[in-house]
Amino acid sequence: MDRPPRSLGLFLRTAREGSRLTLRSVEESTGVSNAYLSQLEHGKIRQPSPVILHKLTELYAVSYSDAMRLAGYPVPEFAGTGTAKPMPKSFSRFGDITPDEESALGEYLDFLRSRRERE
Predict the structure, then answer these.
(1) What DSSP state is assigned to residue 103?
(2) Are 84 and 65 in contact (CB under 8 A)?
(3) C-alpha 17: how far from its chain's center?
């Protein structure tokens, strides 16, 4: 497994180029200006908002956790493993959720699925 680059800018530039995207095409897809993207990739902006990081990592199909870590944001980890706790993709639209909220959402989803199976 490849380790991510040590800088956010290099990580994002490598991901964009690996996706064969230009700065302008990323701007069209995400709404993030190509000038801002260039500043990110050259290290002039070191801590963009998590929302921008999410848009970019989704488009580039790379790890959001790696991007957050490189930007200096805390990333939840599995207890004692040092590995990032993955957030289910469907939960990303809710933003940060507590473990209790995650549990409640899971229980409700189980309820909905069991109801659907009975029909």
Answers:
(1) H
(2) yes
(3) 18
Q: What tens digit of pLDDT does each residue of 17-32 get?
A: 999 999 999 999 999 9
35, HSE (Cβ side, Cα atoms, 13 Å)? 0
Instruction: Work out the angle at residue 73's Cα, subtended by the Cα atoms of residues 28 and 63, and round it to the nearest 5 degrees.
Output: 55
Strand partners, 77: 84
**Tokens at 81, concatenated:** 């493993």
- Residue 27 main-chain phi, psi, to 5 deg: -60, -45
Residue found under tokens 């488009």: 59
Using alpha carbons, list the distances in angstroms from residue 76 to 43, 53, 59, 69, 101: 25, 16, 22, 10, 15
Strand partners, 84: 77
Q: Which residues of the chain have pLDDT under 70?
A: 1-5, 77-97, 119
> What is the pTM for the complete model shown?
0.62
Helix (H, G, I), strand (E, B) or coil at 77: strand
The answer to whether the beta carbons of residues 67 and 11 sit under 8 Å apart is yes
